[in-house]
From TrEMBL:
Annotated Nudix hydrolase domain residues: 115-275
Cofactor(s) it depends on: Mg(2+)
Keywords: Hydrolase, Magnesium, Metal-binding
Entry-linked InterPro entries: NUDIX_hydrolase-like_dom_sf (IPR015797), NUDIX_hydrolase_dom (IPR000086), NUDT22/NUDT9-like (IPR055295)
Any GO MF annotation of the entry: metal ion binding
Protein name from the UniProt record: Nudix hydrolase domain-containing protein
Amino acid sequence: MGKAYQVLLQWPSPLRRSQLCVDFSPLYDREPHPDASLEASIDDIWDQRRSANPSLFNATKFRYGGYDLSPDCQQICLRLGLTDYKTFVGTNLSPKWENFLSPSTDDVLRCKRTSSPLGNGAIVETLDSLIILLQRSSNVGEYPGHLVFPGGHSEPSEIGILGHSDHSEKLNNKIADEMFEGIVREVCEETGIPASSLSEAELIGISRRSVNVRPTAFFFMKCRLTSSVISEHYTRAADSFESTKLCFVNREELIDKSNEMPGCHEGGAAIFTKIDNMV
């Protein structure tokens, strides 16, 4: 049995916002599958999932289209397109998800017909040196009941993106900002931790789950609160309905617990343990 994840990007030390740029373009949107019946199944699967779980709703997402390294290897440029949650459910989460893959050893080409929205996850270390985990509720669309890091997606709607009408450098910078601001927002909404208690988020890598080829970017941040204080904040979290329990583990316990995570989050744990200059 192979690994539950593939590491797509890993840096020897965390990357700050100044080290990330974005190339947002329709070139990185999903390519429709030539099989018309397979394409039609996207709507069918979405209707089935919505009937089973009416709390699911569609929204636009940034699609992962790979990355480029600067010549000095001190900066990365994320290639991002546009997709939505419905297409994610109908391709990556489809029972026929493997049929959407293309026969290529190149990761981007292999996944070009999948939605592959770029998720985000946060490794948050508390003042008493513990890592925050959440146990997902039964209401979520992916891996209910599993342990995960806080996270979700950076949202195009947060910065007014509805399509590809604007291709300016200013917009690319806004999207890069949203990559970092979006993960802070997810942590605050899911745990109740005030943003003022978190350090600046730093990108540590990207992993892709082997099952469903789901990509997720992982960030590290420190919290200036102890685990007991965070537990109190969690009871008032805006999105606490997405989880049933807040958990804390030390760094040594994290790898064992990561076996209970979806593959992309297991990959995030592996990336975290290999960072050399964590601050």
